[in-house]
Amino acid sequence: MTKADSNVDRIYEKLRKMAAYFEFKPDARINESALSTELGASRTPLREALNRLVAEGFLTFQSGRGFFCRPLSPKLILDLYEARVAIETEIVRLVCRRASDEELQDLMEFLKSTEPDYDSCEDPMELLSMDEAYHMRIAALSQSNELVRILENLNDRVRYIRLVDLKYLRGKTPVSTQEEAQLSAHRVVLTALINRDEDKAVSTMRHHIERRRDEATEAVRIAYSQLYVPAD
Amino acid sequence: MTKADSNVDRIYEKLRKMAAYFEFKPDARINESALSTELGASRTPLREALNRLVAEGFLTFQSGRGFFCRPLSPKLILDLYEARVAIETEIVRLVCRRASDEELQDLMEFLKSTEPDYDSCEDPMELLSMDEAYHMRIAALSQSNELVRILENLNDRVRYIRLVDLKYLRGKTPVSTQEEAQLSAHRVVLTALINRDEDKAVSTMRHHIERRRDEATEAVRIAYSQLYVPAD
DNA sequence: GCACTCAAAATTGTATACAGCACCATATTC
DNA sequence: GAATATGGTGCTGTATACAATTTTGAGTGC
User: Fold this and answer.
1) Is position B53 within any domain?
2) Which residues form the HTH gntR-type domain (chains A, B) (predicted)?
3) Phi then psi for A67, rounded to 5 degrees?
4) Over the stretch B44-86, which tens digit does the pLDDT of each residue have?
5) Does at least one atom of strand C sit less than 7 Å from the CB of B39?
């Protein structure tokens, strides 16, 4: 049996998801004993996983008091969006210089093939997954593992808010309209890349993300109301 | 007797430095028992610190085989420099929009006051510290904690190579010339910021870092020769 | 009602024990 | 001699125990 996934890894992945979706409430203290029995492991591997998550910015740690969920505030989310802009604009720049015509054409095929899914999809979670998958495919073409790595971390930490945004803010406009705007931004960036128009690709990507960033404050407000409201 | 800094934090800081300067050789396996006695602690807190460093990219981990030092290759260093470009150009962009005239003037004072130190300084380590301090002061003006955080991590991971670069590559040109080039780049960026010339500030910063990036392959070669040569 | 004290309970921090896997050297077979 | 078994050694993975610390809460005085 290939224990490629060790127990710590299993716990880590699980906790990472829980933290990403704020199953720990912002700033809430994490009880190690309770969590360890819940996860069916002892405190030793649990704490190892928790320490990794601290280093990744999902949790905080206070000596003598233990682990806490990261806080949630508009400022923190704004910072994450800004970091995304930094990373994704540079990614687009690198892709424009490094990706082959063929790779870009493949990506265009991928984009076209998923368009029907975007239109038909009603589940915000799935919609977000598709969007992230597309952004990560572009990222891969940058040939920079470090940028990919940072982007993955940022995406995970901002995902819950993006989900709220998608569900409660953009839900106001008709579905067909919002997804089309999204899709069109994707298409515009990719077309610019194919034409090797770096400036256009970069600035389109920048505005694509910044538009969402500007909704962050409102999204955080809604997120709080969701987190502290009894489940339906 | 838990101090404000817990034992794990102490171990963590120590290991972080050791990893930054490749006191663990690239890809070398880390013996937990030996290291724990060396640090005067048991394996439990040691492993917690090691897990944090894995999450930060200083170490790697293989299930069942333990912890290893991160590898060192030109590609990895290039990636780090590229990530630095991404972060620092966005930082400059934000600073240009957000920093007050007063803050920028203060920074100019700081720059001027350290110029004599740059000229007189013979120690590459100190030179690098001053350079990093300056870059971090700019970063702070961006008001983005996330970008600051990412930049700190990147700086720590690339520091050893920058040191080698400074010591063995740029040592070839006369000291006065190289430090002046460095200083002048700093001054050009800052002047552009004061004039609110975003494009100039961003592109100068970009080239300032990219120039070093282009030396990375050679620097890594030298780094290897230094790491595996008996100490002087 | 409010602040303060102090002991009990809960929780974290770390050492240690031990099971099991990985690695290495030696032996064995062809 | 090369390739493959095999046993020993050392290391990692995790549970558990216990000390140290923080938190809680009841009781007391004002």
Assistant:
1) yes
2) 5-72
3) -100, 145
4) 999 999 999 999 999 999 999 999 999 999 999 999 999 999 9
5) no
